[in-house]
């Protein structure tokens, strides 16, 4: 892929784009009452959630949910160029997103046995199962190695006890991708395992958290849960390294060929400034508003380019040079999302805080953005943690560190 100079599709891409676009036109048809995308995940009706799940299965059956992955692991075995086409077209189709943590797949690919890969990866890559990543605990967020949940071996099972917090979304997953201490007497980082476990095993319970964002995050409790040893991935004291692969991809090392952060709210904001009068002129004519919007727009393009660069590096034998790049992408995405939140507030003023159906501008998207932009700091590691990783990867910190091994295919 040549992401800098590519301005038009190659004939192969154009032909494939037409095929994908025609398939999407047919497969995204849904009843009128399921058309509207909820602003926040917990507002999604069970009926729309079910529709999205089925859509993802249809996409997965074609190999288009994991286009780069080999067919034997549920992928489409397509080139990076055609993967880009799918990502762009699916993005344009406006299908609502649901929480499904697929960062487990790269970890399974690096650390799983061949038997685990052949069993789990096709289900994950074809969208047949949904996964929650359950790493965070009440006393182990940034310090993900400080977990207290234990998994003690008992014959061919592990007995898991403990709790996780800030996990997943408002609907039931099929699997949990989770960490637990397997050897309480071993030193930190070498005392834990990573498990891919059925989400409904006896002894697992869920409650929903009340957060400033309405995305249905869960507390999860493990009470003497018997987990088959076959669900341990990567060895019983190797869990730290296994989680690092998932987090490397979550941060963005594998790249992102979708839109840059905050684009949707920025589009709404630009429209709002054109349509809103202030002192006898459209808000968009105000030089200060123009300055804020143009800067945000440029920043969102920079983020998009970083996402494309990481995708290109990751998939073009340049992976060995990937060090700080994932965390750089994560840091920019987070700081930019928070900055866009401030721009929305500066431009829309008190209207950015209104959620009332009749009065709220942009159908309430600004108000929702105000809450979401604050929490953008956290998932997958805060901005401070991303800075820490970058410093370590650049050799600027007390400890030097390399990027975790990762693959997406
Ligand atoms: C919306 C949302 C979605 C989430 N989704 C998931 C999920 O699906 N699965 C999951 O497992 N977790 C999830 N999380 C949890 C997330 O990973 C943690 O919130 C995050 O890692 C920070 O942990 P903490 O909240 O415990 O903050 P703490 O670790 O207590 O940190 C508090 C503050 O101290 C700073 N800090 C901590 N350590 C250092 C340090 N060494 N140097 C400098 N500053 C430091 C942090 O940056 C932060 O500002 C989610 C969180 C949110 C808010």
Average residue-wise pLDDT: 93
The count of strands amounts to 10
Give the low-pLDDT segments.
none
CATH architecture descriptor of the largest domain:
Up-down Bundle
Q: How much helical structure, as a percent, in the residues?
A: 40-55%
The number of helical segments is 11
Q: Which outline best applies? A: globular
Task: Identify the CATH class of the largest domain.
Answer: Mainly Alpha
Number of domains: 3
Main sheet: strand order: 1-4-5-8
Main pleated sheet: 4 strands, mixed
Instruction: Give me the secondary-structure category.
Output: alpha+beta
Rg over CA atoms, rounded to whole Å, is 22 Å
Summarize the helices and strands and which ones pair or pack.
Layout: H1 11-27, H2 46-61, H3 80-93, H4 104-111, H5 114-125, E1 131-134, E2 150-154, E3 157-167, E4 175-181, E5 192-198, E6 204-208, E7 218-228, E8 232-233, H6 239-251, H7 263-275, E9 277-278, E10 281-282, H8 287-315, H9 325-348, H10 365-375, H11 383-393
Parallel strand pairs: 1-4
Antiparallel strand pairs: 2-3, 3-7, 4-5, 5-8, 6-7, 9-10
Bound molecules: flavin-adenine dinucleotide.
The site of flavin-adenine dinucleotide has 20 residues, from strand 1, strand 3 and helix 11.
Structure, explained:
By secondary structure, the protein is α+β, with helices and mostly antiparallel strands. It folds into three domains: 11-98, no CATH class; 131-238, Butyryl-CoA Dehydrogenase, subunit A, domain 2 (Beta Barrel), CATH 2.40.110; 252-393, Butyryl-CoA Dehydrogenase, subunit A, domain 3 (Up-down Bundle). The chain has eleven helices and ten strands. The chain has a four-stranded mixed sheet with strand order 1-4-5-8. Strand 2 and strand 3 form a beta hairpin. Helix 9 packs antiparallel against helix 11. The longest helix is centred in the last third of the chain and has 29 residues, at 287-315. It is globular, with a radius of gyration of 22 Å. Flavin-adenine dinucleotide (FAD) is lined by residues 133-136, 141-142, 166-168, 213, 217, 375, 378-382, 384-385, 388.
């Amino acid at each position: 892929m040549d992401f800098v100079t590519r301005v038009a599709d190659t004939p192969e891409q154009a032909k494939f784009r037409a095929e994908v676009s025609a398939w999407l036109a047919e497969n995204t048809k849904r009843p009128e009452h399921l058309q509207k995308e909820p602003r926040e995940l917990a507002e999604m009706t069970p009926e729309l959630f079910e529709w999205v799940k089925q859509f993802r299965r249809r996409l997965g059956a074609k190999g288009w949910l994991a286009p780069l992955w080999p067919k034997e692991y549920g992928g489409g075995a397509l080139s990076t160029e055609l993967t880009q086409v799918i990502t762009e077209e699916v993005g344009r189709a406006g299908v609502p997103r649901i929480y499904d943590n697929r960062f487990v797949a790269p970890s399974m690919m690096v650390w799983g046995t061949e038997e685990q890969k052949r069993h789990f990866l096709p289900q994950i890559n074809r969208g047949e199962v949904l996964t929650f990543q359950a790493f965070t605990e009440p006393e182990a967020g940034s310090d993900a190695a400080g977990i207290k949940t234990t998994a003690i071996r008992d014959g061919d099972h592990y007995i898991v006890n403990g709790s996780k917090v800030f996990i997943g979304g408002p609907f039931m997953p099929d699997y949990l991708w989770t960490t637990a201490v397997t050897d309480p007497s071993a030193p930190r980082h070498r005392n834990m395992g990573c498990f891919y476990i059925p989400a409904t095993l006896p002894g697992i319970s869920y409650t929903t958290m009340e957060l400033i964002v309405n995305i249905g995050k869960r507390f999860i409790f493990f009470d003497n849960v018997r987990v088959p040893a076959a669900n341990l991935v990567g060895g019983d004291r190797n869990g730290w390294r296994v989680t690092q692969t998932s987090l490397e991809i979550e941060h963005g090392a594998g790249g992102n060929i979708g839109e840059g952060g905050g684009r949707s709210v920025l589009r709404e904001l630009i429209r709002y400034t054109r349509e809103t009068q202030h002192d006898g002129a459209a808000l968009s004519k105000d030089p200060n508003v123009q300055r804020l919007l143009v800067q945000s727009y440029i920043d969102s393009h920079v983020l998009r380019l970083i996402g494309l660069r990481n995708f290109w590096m990751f998939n073009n034998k340049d992976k060995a040079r990937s060090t700080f790049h994932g965390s750089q992408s994560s840091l920019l995405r987070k700081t930019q999302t928070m900055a866009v939140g401030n721009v929305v507030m500066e431009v829309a003023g008190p209207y950015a805080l209104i959620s009332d159906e009749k009065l709220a501008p942009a159908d309430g998207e600004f108000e929702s953005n105000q809450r979401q932009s604050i929490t953008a700091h956290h998932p997958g590691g805060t901005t401070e943690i991303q800075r820490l990783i970058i410093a370590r990867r650049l050799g600027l910190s007390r400890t030097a560190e390399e990027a975790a091994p990762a693959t997406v295919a």
